[in-house]
Amino acid sequence: MKNENIPIILGELYNDLYTGYTGGAVDVYKPEGKNVYSYDINSLFPTAMKFYGMPIGSPVYFEGNILSISNYTSILSKDSQKPFGFFYAKITAPSDLHKPVLQLRLKTKNGVQTVSPVGTWEGWYFSEELINAVNNYDYKVEIIRGYLFKKEKVFTNYVETLYKIKQDNSPGQLNADPCKCLISKFLLNMLYGRFGMSPEFKNHIILNSDDAEKYYSEYEVTDVIDFNNGLELLEFYPKEIKDDNSGGCNVSVALSAAVTAYSRVLMCTFKHLKDNECLYTDTDCAHLLKPLSSDYVGSGLGKMKLEHVFSRSVYLSPKCYGGLYDPELSKAKIIKEGPELVKVKGLKNPVSFFELESLLYKNEKMEVEQTKWYRHFDKGYISLKEELYTLRITSNKRELIYDSNGKFVDTKPFELNDGRLIKNEETILYYLPKNKKVIKKIK
After folding, report:
1. Which end of the chain has fewer surrounding CB within 10 Å, N or C?
2. What is the pLDDT of residue 231?
């Protein structure tokens, strides 16, 4: 790295960069399909860590459109002098783009959602993701301020070493050690997130209720558990953010944000393939109407692998989908797993593909009973309760389109005007610099 270091990022710089740190894109584009091919990418985040330059060195703050400064004549320039870092910019996404590529946090009456809209808004973004949006998808970008970093590949040896251990110990390999495979996989996938941790450590204290009241004015209280015996457990942060490293927390959210941004850029390829429509994407997978070219498929790092072939598939919402296995192309899957696959986040008890399919109509819902665990700190035990899980179509990421019979048939991106959701004045653009706020006591 030529004596350059990974920067420790704290204070106001952390707050700025954290607002541009979002995860993988998960979207339903079409609610159902026939002859669908589901692919997963091999180690998406490690791929980004190995092959792409990361932000290092001391960040330099600037204001104004850096593209107009000498040596930075164009964000599209290919020379080494192009600006690299994180920029707060005004974004204009083309209104006819069906699968937008820049995402942001949007606060709605149903909570905060990470969406990929069209229209206009402002926000913090990694420079390389902006370049991808401008070069390939006709976005317009006006940079207002930002932080410049130096660029260096810092994880190449780390990823290569661990990925080889993972491959050498994968199931089916001679003398494979499943523990080595699992540990190497964890180390590959979790390091980037470690850099994105909050620089402030949470504190906890048990106080009587009268003394606890004082903490609400002196600290950022994020959680309270009332033991119903005159004592309360408080979780809190100090009010002021320190710009030094006196807390001893070595974090660099710039690396985490860069890794996830590079990963989204990699997945953009599979959302916009010519003559091969993408119905659904999760962080590292894509459901397509045709097989991928052999150029994209393989066992190497960053290559796609075919996971499922469905004769029919249904997508109700992100993390909620199902498919019937193609009897000719998925014989091994059918023998091992049965004739269908259904995945519903948060639901332990399975539902069938046909039950999922019946929910494609407006206002249809299904209630599934499942057991949930509850902790009782004040009494020192855990209880189990039977609760209902309501399964239905949700519209918190894209606008839903129904046909004349009320059937869910398509989606389109939300549209923003200066950060406000068009046709819904209750929805506003919202960034989360830190996930901490004073909350009401939990009785």
Report:
1. C
2. 84
